[in-house]
Amino acid sequence: MVKFIHTADIHLGVAPDAGRPWSKKRQREIWDSFAEVIAAAKREKPDFLFITGDLFHAQPLKKELAEVDALFREIPETKVLLIIGNHDFLRPKSYYLTFPWAENIYIFKREEADYFDFPEKNAAVYGLSYWHREIRERLYDGLHPLEDDRINILLAHGGDETHIPFAAKRLLQNGFDYVAAGHIHRGGWLAEGRAVMAGSLTPTDCNDVGLHGYWMGTLTKAGAQVQFYPIYHCEYCHETYEVHPGTTERELLRWAERLIAERPQYQYFRLFLKGRKDPDIVYDLSAIDELDRIVDVTEQLVPDYDYEKLCEEYAGSLLEAYIRRMERKPQDMRTKKALEYGVNALLGHKF
Ligand SMILES: [Mn+2]
């Protein structure tokens, strides 16, 4: 039996929400999240820690490798298996290649599939590292484990068109017992109980919504028992407010303030205003924008025009002619949009 922890896409070094007051704090929290995984390993003493790519957001400095190496030295009983992803991909001068790593670190250093054999655990771990920013070839498809009797684990990074496309099902058919993948920041099972996309350890971008964390479990030739463990340093939430023509600025501000007050401290918000608004009102959203934990606020409002009234007001003008003309067309979504955009343009509103 093999016990393991699996994480990916930690993106150490990134400072999310650039320009916002909490950006530095979030950068530090990403390191803290990684230290939390190490703490879990210290407690749980898994045989392996799988890191399936993008440990760093960009090419790491030597001192940054010294930081992670020191963390790995805290868990000498756990073997750390590391593949390098597309963000911090290997190049001839990468410190990854020359750093004097602790003995429990196993790095896949080639872009061709390789493996580490652990006969004492009856396990073999396969993988490869990126030497390019993009790899379009399906490098995992032709890969078969060498010894059927071993618990064969594949560490993979990619899964989209420009980063080693693969289908988990195919890799399992090739004979792997478990696929631990990285790259796609939204994690989840790729094949229930047999292949998992770790998801980023903690969100690195305000569009990485939902919970993030690491995976831990046990693996035998007969199957896996693996669970997701969330890390609550940061969760991005996208929230929508339904605006109507009577909505006031104060009402919008109250809504944002309520979110900040009522929701957990670790949540950060992107706000979206949807619906219809009075065409004469321009909301000043700077007060909302200045609130803590509000990443940004986006207006996606359509003006609530009274076209009859506009025709009266602008009788004899191009605007009236345009509205009348559009009224003669079939009244589908497209006509309505065209009418709205045309009127916006003619009235000089910016939407
Ligand atoms: Mn990646």
Description:
The chain is of the alpha/beta class and 351 residues long. The protein folds into 2 domains: 2-230, Metallo-dependent phosphatases (Purple Acid Phosphatase, chain A, domain 2); 235-347, no CATH class. Helix content is 26%, strand content 27%. It contains 9 helices and 15 strands. It has a 6-stranded mixed sheet with strand order 4-3-2-1-11-12, with no helix packed on it. A 6-stranded mixed sheet has the order 5-6-7-8-10-9. The chain has a 3-stranded parallel sheet with strand order 13-14-15, covered by helices on one side. Strand 13, helix 5 and strand 14 (267-277) form a beta-alpha-beta unit. Helix 8 runs antiparallel to helix 9 (333-347). The radius of gyration is 26 Å and the shape is elongated. The structure holds manganese (II) ion. Manganese (II) ion is lined by residues 53-54, 85-87, 157, 183.
Descriptive terms for the model:
single chain, 351 residues, alpha/beta, Purple Acid Phosphatase, chain A, domain 2, 2 domains, six-stranded mixed beta sheet, 15 strands, 26% helix, 27% strand, elongated, binds manganese (II) ion
What is the typical, i.e. mean, pLDDT? 95
Rough shape? elongated
Number of structural domains: 2
Task: Give the biggest beta sheet.
Answer: 6 strands, mixed
Distance between the termini: 60 Å
CATH class of the largest domain: Alpha Beta
Order of helices and strands: EHEHEHEEEEHEEEEEEHEHEHHH
Q: How many β-strand stretches?
A: 15
CATH topology of the largest domain: Purple Acid Phosphatase, chain A, domain 2
Which ligands accompany this protein? manganese (II) ion
Strand order of the largest sheet: 4-3-2-1-11-12
